[in-house]
Amino acid sequence: MRGNLPDRWLRGLSLLVVSAGLGLSGCSTTPGQTGLGNSLTESSSQSNSVLMQQIRGELDDGEFGNAALQLQLLHERVLTPQEQVEFMLLSAQMHLGSNEPEIAGEYLNQLTQRMNYATPEQELRASLLKARWYESNGEYLAAARERDFLSGALNPEQREQNHEQIWQDLMAMPEVELLEWAEKTPATQFGDWLRLAAISRNSRLTLDEHLAAVTTWREQNPAHPAAIQLPGGLALLADLAANRPHSVALMLPLSGPLEKTGGAIRDGFMAAYYESLDKGYAIPQVHLYDSQKYSDIDIAYAQAQLDGAQWVIGPINKMQVQALQQRETLPLPTLALNYGDRSEAETLPANLYQFGLAAEDEAVQIAEKAWTDGLRRALVLVPQGNWGERIYAAFEQRWLELGGEIGEQRFYPNRQDYNPEIKALLNVDDSQKRYQTMRRLLRQSTEFEPRRRQDVDWVFMVALPQQARQIKPTLAFNFAGDLPVYATSHVYSGEPNPTKDRDLNGVQFCDVPWLLESSELYRTVEKVMPNGQGGYARLYAMGVDAFRLLPRLKQLEVFPHSQMFGSTGALALDHERRIHRRTECTQFRSGRPQRLARR
């Protein structure tokens, strides 16, 4: 997709030409036309109708290239006002399907000027396309409100799909914004949607608390569409609570090189365990095993079975997870706390689930956020080594899928001075070389101000705090202070440090809610730990979510679009039973993370 900028420019130009053409050709027959003229007009109208029907079929089948060619033929014909409306609807649908929301938006804007010619069916399609356009731009509140407004005009099948999409839109919004907007729309159907969504987006609720809150909401709003048919797998909550495991094996490294990692996850898990116990909710019996003391993991499984465990949570070691996923089945259903590498020829055991803090998920989320923020061409700075390469691969795949471009990428070494890599990335060296060449040719002194490349609009950075604190000022030193910088969560130590992090002001990153939305459980854990959670805070959050996630795996598996909102982010399960996370986005201001204002 690297060469698509000229294509988009040409399509935009085509849009202007089409608009002008429609303004001239949108005349129907005049009262003076008779006989053959009427016959030709009727024949043309029938031909247009057939062509439009073909285009709708191609768009429904995802044949956007064929649809584009057919639309080009259509716009050269004489169109009635109602056919002009249809042409714009089809064009907007095509560009949305082709991941070109800017052009789709132009057609939708033109539609507003011709809606008095639209049929009720076309008005409905226009509203649905507008909702999709909002979604493509990350304007989820506007999309949900549009869908709620039109829901009454839909047939039962469409209404069910629309209600589920309303839910997905609201689930993309932070809890605090849902509550803020719910207060602005009291005693309305949409306000009740917002209140139910805020309940599900509350990452602090246990399964029992979530079930109780949904039950209360449903009793208060019995006629609401979401009460009649609970969205997002909420109808399963009662069943999940009644059938949760009553005995689990927690298999973690509590000695050896991963002792601190295993200890942090264990402490987070047990903090969630005791929180539920103190509130009087049902809890499983927990059997704790040090995975380092078992030379063969089968021995650990056998011991867990003898102790009556129904599930295993762990291991953490990547090689052990890799070995587990190569088996046909496991002795006990297992929630591994890491991810094995995947081979397309490999068939995963049906009772293995994998959950971890994968940086690749963050790279995908950053790509999507930058795209919805209107950015299109990136520079990339990632560290050398396998870890940096994996993050870059995930980012590159998603960014190119969206239609973005990568101006250049640099894999930087761990050093004190990042200026050489950044100068080369920004082409500042080339600017200086051109000046030196010009000076030699002219043989006289000339005024010169170095410049960076102008063909990019943002920077994707993967760096630890000590690296980022040097890289960000170096970007500014090389005339790139105006480029937005987006980063993975590794840019933040997890502990506020305004003095050191002032150099990161303006950097946007996405991190776990555990760090960004202080909860009572977080404060309890922070207080109990001798020196606080420190750099292991995200692993404490992972332990909390391992406890809360286990009984909800069935919900995530049965309802592919459902999510659990936990301490590490919004958790969803893919077809390979791997958990993926979406975290909360924030920005450094005055050296501290602050929540981003929504557009």
TrEMBL record:
This is Penicillin-binding protein activator. It holds the Pfam family LppC. Keywords: Membrane. Gene3D superfamilies: 1.25.40.650, 3.40.50.2300. It comes from the Bacteria. InterPro entries: LpoA, Peripla_BP_I. The lineage of its organism: Bacteria, Pseudomonadati, Pseudomonadota, Gammaproteobacteria, Oceanospirillales. Coiled coil: none annotated. SUPFAM superfamilies: Periplasmic binding protein-like I.
